[in-house]
Amino acid sequence: MHVLSFRSILLLLGVLLPMIHALTIPNQHGVVRRDAKEYGGYDNVVDLDRRAKKKPSKPTKPTSKKADPPPVNTPTPAPPPPVNTPSKPADTPKPSPSPSKPADTPKPSPSPSKPAVTPQPSSSKPAGTPSPSSSKAASSISSSSNSGSSSSSASSSSVSSSSISAYIIPKPTKAVDTCLLPGVDCWGDFTDFDGVLDGSENDGELTRRNPNAYSYHVLEKRGDRPFDASLGGSGTLHFESLGYPAADKLFEDSKGKKLTKHGFNFTSDTMTDLSVKDAYKLPTKGSGWVVEHIVELQSVKRFIEAATTAGELSAVVPGQFFTDYWNKPIPKPDFDGRTQPTTYKGANWKKAENRTLNNLVFQALGSTYNRAEFVLCDSQINSYKERVWSFSSPMADDKFEQYTKDVVTGGITSNVHLSAIRTTLAVFSYLNNAEISKRLKQAVANVKLELANVPKIHNQNHNLDTLWEEFMKKHMEEVKDHGKEWLTKSINLAKKAYADEKKKLEAIKADLKKGTKNQAAIDKEKATLDASIKKLQTKERAAEKAVEDAEDKVAKATGAKKKTEKKAQEQAEVEHYKALKTLNLEKRKAHVLVLKNVDDLIDNINIAQKQLTGYETEVAKLKVPSAV
């Protein structure tokens, strides 16, 4: 038997060790975990999935693998590479190619008919499958954001030593639910409350409720919401909207089962897909569906203020009319004898205090008794719509600016702030859906009919019905103009931020190509970064644990204690975000030590810029449905 020489053994080990290493490389889903223990595996990810418990997401099939490190040196090492040529060891397996470009190249397609992954309204959000917002899409910031990530294995001339290994540069393609980001509260806390479903009201009779029983946020969107309308300088009118069912009751009790079920959600969670589709599934508590008033309740307040203010509409209604008649009981014969909408059977209120013009108008927009006007909607789309409708910023301007800064500098991935733009565009896709635009017109017509009864029920004639129609036409155009204004401003801000960061990266790239840093300096810098990142990872994990502990306390708390614990949780989320951003910024310092990584960072900016250009195209085509 021939005995292997010592030199032969070394050569054999040089071949076998890389192969063994390749077999133990974790798949891509494993790479996205923040506690990446692979040597030099600094992924740039953010996990902000803090505000809603969900089932573990099913790992996605890896699309690329981290490149193997250089092989073990043999007694006869290869000569050093030329100064400006990337090193390419002969024995190193070639890294898997990046996914095809279509996955990362934005092609905004707001067509509702676009075939895509069907949304699943559940508390679990597998990668690539959108669901209403309680199944936080922010998990996409970590796992999905790495979809299509490329392994930066090639080293520049100044980083040819095996002391620097591959760095993961994520290429995010999946959207996140921005309403669940730290410091961004779109619609308040509705964990334990959604709708006001009262038995007697379900039969048509209203029951007065203690206004202190619910928080302001709950009243604002989910119950008998209070309003105070300014009457053109002649005082203030106080009134309340009507309650309505919770999402899981809307279509599922004896009254709801008679209705056609509709639930609108994103067609997919792809960043370039702006479309919305009817994707109703039986909702469960906390599933992310909310009951949607297509004509927002705030419209009534805005109409009253416009009607009593000179220059807003074609005529001015005396404020005294609303003071005297808006909440005044209607005599039973006049109430019963009025012309009623045909799309629903109105409530037969027996109590005089319930038979008011106010209640008839809000019933026409949708209530526990009249459910025909309602659809279910993803809570993020719903909240963004409410903000656009009220001429507020879909995401607060200071928040969007801060997230943009964090994105371009490497603190978080681009899908965070781009998702705010995408969701705003999706609001208009939703409004223009055939079913929604039809229901919007019907709700406007129903209110018009009730207002046309005023001369008969109150012996007053101020042409409220024609003024309402005029108001809604004007309002819808203003919604479009406001949406365009915010989108244009936000896109321009993002474009400038990306352009500025790209210049910085181009300068870093030029220096790396020159090879001005020697290998010893790079190794020393990496060692320093290794130590720093390790400490920051420990801090980040502690901050994450604090959030998890806070979530547990919120889940166990009740009453006023729950509100206190919720505030503590939100603060813990903010602290975790800070810790994670600090960690990712430190990782960015490691990214820019490698020429190939810098190229990937620049490529990410190019992708984001192209995506913004696609969004700009959609903004130019923005439209709203007719209100009549």
TrEMBL record:
Signal peptide range in chain numbering = 1-22
- Where in the sequence does UniProt note compositional bias of the Low complexity kind? 121-162
Query: Residues annotated as region Disordered?
Result: 43-162
Where along the chain is composition biased (Pro residues)?
A: 69-84, 92-113
Q: Which keywords fit this entry according to its UniProt record?
A: Coiled coil, Signal
Recorded superkingdom: Eukaryota
Q: Which residues form a coiled coil?
A: 491-618
Q: Could you identify this protein by its name? A: Uncharacterized protein
- Species per Swiss-Prot/TrEMBL record: Corynespora cassiicola Philippines
